[in-house]
Amino acid sequence: CMVDVTPCVKSLRAASLIPEFFLSMDQNNRLILNDEYIICQPQKLSPNFYFLKFILGSPKRLIEKRCIESKWNTKLPTSFHMVVRNLKFKDGLQAIFFPRIGASKLTFRNNLTKKDVDRLGIDRDKLFAYIESIDRNEINRNRV
Question: Which residues lie below 8 Å from residue 38, measured CB to CB, with a gap of 6+?
Fold first, then answer.
C-alpha cells in the first residue's frame, strides 16, 4: 500500500516559511513580540520611538544612525549598542533581531523562521524565560 506524502511535504515546507519570531508596534506604541509578549513601550516622539518606527519599516538591511536622525529630525543620544540594550534586546533576543551592531550602523531582521533561529544556536528555554520576564515587568509597569 502506498501513501501519497506530497501534501505532508508541502505542509512542512510552508511551515518552515512561517515566521516564528516577529516584532510589531501596537496602537499604544508597545513593541510586541509574536503578537503576544510586550518587550517595551517607548514614549511617543522619543528617540527610542523613532528608532523603532524606522527599523520596523526597514527590515533586512543596513541601517545608519544618521538616516534615522535625518528622517525624523531627531538626535539619538547614544550608540546603537545602548539604544538596543535600553529597549530590552539582550543576548539571544538581540542576536535574533540585530545580527550586526556597531556604534552608528546595524542590521535589523524581522519575521524570522524556526530555521533562521535554529542556525543561531540559541537556547530557547533561556530566551523565553527572558522574554517572559520582560513581558511581566512591562505589564506591571503599565498598570499604574
Answer: 30, 31, 32, 134, 135, 138, 139, 142
